[in-house]
DNA sequence: ATGAATCGCTACAGTGACTGCATCGAATGA
DNA sequence: TCATTCGATGCAGTCACTGTAGCGATTCAT
């Protein structure tokens, strides 16, 4: 399945080295005490190369989060014929929660992000921007799935409520020092809360 | 009431000149085609002075939005003894919607922001960050108002759902070219939608 | 009214994120 | 084997943003 050529494998290795270097440096010294040049140095590439892999300094901490959105979009696309709107939204949201647990919560990456974002406005901002982009995509997909029940604004409101509730509760849970499982439970409770409002 | 000294009045005039220069330049040429130096030039102050009034290039477009949050916080503080949680949240949210209409929607400022933010990630990000800060404050206030019914995470979920739904629907409405009144109606509908889920 | 303290503004020098461009050399494909 | 592709590099440049020192106009105390 993974038919990657040598060139592509090298590229991924560089990317991974950058991510690991960044996470390590950020953990040790905090976000704004680390320059992109230092990250590149630690990964043994040139500073210019960093920006071939990531658009901004913040992005290295948000690598691979797009995958989550794709999962949710798939969940919407693969709905059963008669499946109810709330059920589809819950299924899509739960996909994202499960993936978040797998990739970011259990490894402590989510906690690191939350900690750094709390003290770094630029990082916080970039993180939220990802959410909004994701929201817009989800809202569009949801509206296409239920064109007779939803217009664009209502779809945006539903998705906005869902993502807003889940992410705010996750952030609050992380900030009070909860462990991965507690955070996930908080997210699921928020999801259920919003799901009720749709029915 | 307005006992402002000469010095303070001059300061406000400078601030206002910066805001107006920025809005005009952004309208004419788009966000990233305008430098802070040019804004300062147009307002006839030094570039350094710009940063005495605004923390970032984006902030000049978000001036005075904190007032809205304060209104909502007041609304929570001034609740009646027996007032229900959903009613308080709706009242607080409506305060923000009304103020948004008064200050930003009717003047077209909100539309400008939405247009610029659509093409400028940094601006979009900063805007969202404001929302999150506001959310956190509101959630804390709400939890203090109903300490027996809400814990921190649930309060965050409620406020997150409300702010998420209202702002997402407003943005979508703005993006499809709706006028001020339509945008406000979209926000109110989203608010009502979320309010139902609490009861 | 006068001297002192405050404070908004300015100039200057610097840091660091990010970009465009020309180039090199290793991988790839014919 | 030769040509093409493409990830990585160096370099020069732009621009957001900051620290610092100083100027001059308001404000305040006497």
UniProtKB/TrEMBL annotation, chains A, B:
InterPro entries: Homeodomain-like_sf, HTH-type_TetR-like_transc_reg, HTH_TetR. PANTHER family: HTH-TYPE TRANSCRIPTIONAL REGULATOR BETI, HTH-TYPE TRANSCRIPTIONAL REGULATOR RUTR. Pfam families: TetR_N (PF00440). One of its GO terms (molecular function) is transcription cis-regulatory region binding. This is AcrR family transcriptional regulator. Residues 12-72 form the HTH tetR-type domain. The chain crosses the membrane at residues 150-171. Residues 35-54 bind DNA. Keywords: DNA-binding, Membrane, Transcription, Transcription regulation, Transmembrane, Transmembrane helix.
């Amino acid at each position: 399945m993974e038919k990657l050529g040598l060139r592509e494998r090298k590229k991924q290795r560089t990317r991974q080295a950058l991510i690991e270097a960044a996470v390590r440096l950020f953990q040790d010294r905090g976000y704004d005490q680390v320059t992109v040049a230092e990250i590149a140095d630690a990964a043994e590439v040139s500073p210019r190369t960093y920006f071939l892999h990531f658009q901004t300094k913040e992005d290295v901490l948000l690598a691979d989060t797009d995958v989550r959105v794709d999962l949710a979009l798939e969940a919407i696309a693969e709905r059963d014929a008669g499946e109810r709107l709330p059920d589809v939204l819950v299924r899509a949201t739960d996909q994202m929660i499960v993936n978040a647990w797998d990739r970011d919560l259990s490894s402590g990456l989510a906690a690191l992000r939350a900690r750094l974002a709390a003290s770094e406005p630029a990082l916080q901002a970039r993180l939220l921007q990802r959410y909004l982009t994701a929201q817009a995509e989800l809202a569009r997909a949801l509206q296409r799935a239920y064109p007779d029940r939803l217009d664009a604004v209502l779809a945006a409101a539903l998705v906005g409520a869902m993502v807003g509730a889940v992410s705010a509760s996750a952030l609050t849970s992380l900030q009070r020092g909860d462990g991965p499982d507690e955070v996930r439970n908080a997210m699921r409770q928020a999801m259920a809360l919003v799901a009720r409002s749709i029915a």
